[in-house]
Write a structure and sequence with these properties.
By secondary structure, the protein is α/β, with parallel strands linked by helices. It is built from 15 helices and 19 strands. The strands form 4 sheets. Strands 3-2-1-4-9-6-10 form a 7-stranded mixed beta sheet, with helices on both faces. Strands 14-15-13-12-16 form a 5-stranded mixed beta sheet. Helix 10 crosses helix 14. The longest helix is centred in the middle third of the chain and has 23 residues. The chain is globular and about 70 Å long.
Length: about 425
């Protein structure tokens, strides 16, 4: 007779939670772990808080919860690596203190990860506001486009992975802002990325989140840096995420520039100093179009950077200045939508306010790879495409653009320059 084998006892699914000054939200996060349908989990929290988080956590006595308070401030990647060393399990997920897991989170992710020893699982999720009210479902594309994966519109939390993946990668990076994104990017070629098509988490958007307190521009640049690191490690025989980037940029710029010119014609009247609210893509395009129409802007209203390609940025416009908001609302928005439709353009302004995602990264990265380590560049070219490359270099790449090698500058804040000795990026 054969020997009967004892049923395999499942190892705990590890929920790893770096914690820093989120006492007002952490109760909801921990309670959502306690409410899991699958009870075989362990929650490991490494807390660096200076608020009342340790006091809040004293109320929990469940032996599956392991709370470690270390007053010294550490980046989340370091916290995760410490927890990966301490905890024992087969699968894990990186959990934020201000989010809530749905009851099926552990069971669903365990099942997905059990398909392969080097799997990463990503789920759709609910976005909620600060009070915890659900706003909308965020659905991830399936399959996730490679050029989008290698951009600031990549994949981060929520995700889960096997412990073997973490072992192969050597854990997380010490980057304080893009630790999750770099982990997923580096894991991309190890095993399958499994998409769970039903929301399994509620993701809170609030003013004190790590994303917003760090500043969105700082976060974008950190993610872009992670993209460059992951791309540098990518094997040469694999598909290139930036192939065709110039063609995508040309198509995007052709559409966005025409839309921006149409919008600028509606706001150009007047003679006083003109200031534009914001420093994002929509503000850039409006500034470019106004300059093309002979009405260069005097400044932008924003924070975090002193200038936008040489044009001043301030928290407030000077008294008496005309302020233009790139966002289009109400009746003015309807009229602009009609104008775009008549001109054969999209009626919505998405191309103008698009994140610096796959198009911008696909355009910028090949130039950065030509001149690794460059901190300042000069751009040889004219027109909207050259201006967009300059904006990408500064906004996403954090580089200084010294000017344009051209007959005339396509941006009011930057001069026409000679080639010089530094890096030159040429775009026609």
């Amino acid at each position: 007779m054969g020997t009967a084998h004892a049923p395999r006892i499942p190892m705990p699914f590890l929920l790893l939670m770096p914690s820093y000054n989120q006492a007002r939200f952490i109760t909801e996060a921990v309670d959502s772990c306690l409410a899991q349908d699958d009870p075989d989990w362990e929650l490991w929290i490494l807390d660096n808080s200076s608020d009342e988080t340790p006091e809040v956590m004293k109320r929990y006595t469940d032996p599956r919860i392991h709370f470690i308070h270390e007053p010294r401030r550490m980046d989340p990647g370091t916290c995760l690596n410490i927890l990966l060393e301490k905890a024992q399990g087969e699968h894990f997920s990186y959990v934020h203190t201000d989010n809530r897991l749905l009851p099926s989170f552990v069971a669903t992710h365990r099942k997905a990860l059990s398909q392969h020893p080097l799997a990463v699982a990503v789920c759709d999720y609910w976005e909620m506001d600060e009070s915890g009210k659900r706003l909308k479902i965020r659905r991830r594309p399936d399959p996730f486009p490679l050029n989008r994966l290698f951009s600031v519109d990549s994949i981060g939390v929520p995700f889960a992975a096997t412990m073997e993946v973490a072992k192969r990668l050597g854990g997380f990076t010490a980057d304080d802002l893009a630790d999750d994104v770099l982990f997923v990017l580096r894991a991309d070629t190890l095993g399958p990325r499994i998409h769970i098509r039903e929301p399994q988490m509620e993701y809170r958007v609030h003013a004190t989140s790590r994303f917003l307190t760090g500043g969105t521009l700082r976060v974008f640049r950190a993610i872009h840096k992670s993209v460059l690191v992951a791309y540098g490690e990518r094997a040469a025989h694999l598909p290139d995420p930036f192939a065709g980037g110039l063609d995508r940029a040309r198509a995007h710029v052709a559409k966005a520039s025409r839309m921006a010119l149409s919008r600028a014609r509606a706001v150009a009247p007047g003679t006083g100093p003109l200031w534009i609210r914001g420093t994002g893509p929509a503000a850039f395009w409006l500034g470019w179009a106004l300059a093309e129409l002979g009405r260069p802007v005097a400044g932008f209203i924003g924070e975090g950077v002193p200038t936008l390609l040489g044009v001043p940025v301030a928290a407030h416009a000077p008294e008496g200045a005309q302020v233009v908001d790139p966002r289009i609302r109400g009746a003015a928005g309807v009229r602009q939508a009609v104008r775009w439709l008549v001109q054969g353009l999209p009626p919505l302004d998405h191309p103008l306010k698009r994140l610096p995602g796959d198009v911008m990264a696909g355009f910028l990265v090949p130039f950065q790879l030509q001149t690794p380590g460059a901190r300042a560049v000069r751009i040889q070219g004219e027109g909207a495409l050259a201006a967009y490359l300059a904006y990408a270099a500064e906004h996403l790449g954090g580089l200084q653009v010294e000017g344009f090698i051209a007959r005339r500058s396509p941006w009011p804040g930057l001069p026409v320059v000679e080639a010089g000795d530094g890096p030159v990026w040429t775009v026609a």
